[in-house]
Design brief:
There is one protein chain. The model has no long low-confidence stretch (mean pLDDT 96). Strand 7 and strand 8 form a beta hairpin. The protein is mainly beta. It has 1 helix and 11 strands. 3% of the residues lie in helices and 50% in strands.
Length: 124
Amino acid sequence: EVQLVESGGGLVQAGGSLRLSCAASGFTFEDYAIGWFRQVPGRKREGLACIDSRDGTTYYGDSAPDRFTISSDNAKNTVYLQMDSLKPEDTAVYYCAADRAVVAGWDDIGMEWYGSGTLVTVSS
């Protein structure tokens, strides 16, 4: 069973940084792509970034701020999202996701599995 557990969210002041973590289990990490999405209630989900664990290639969605960086530690089966210079408009629930491959349009159509999300609140 694919399990994705996000952590690292919380309240931060504008201009601050957070690093989100996604601990993955239940599948062969190196064979999958892992991504980060976010969603504000009532708004469309945004695909931010994903990484192909096979070779470490990273992809960023059209709506991803250039202040965000995705990385992974295959030894720990964990993917990170470093978020710097946070703004109030970054406030959202952030979700980790996984799929068997990075498919075209992944940031729009989504991925196969999702975690339960972690809330990021940026105060002004």
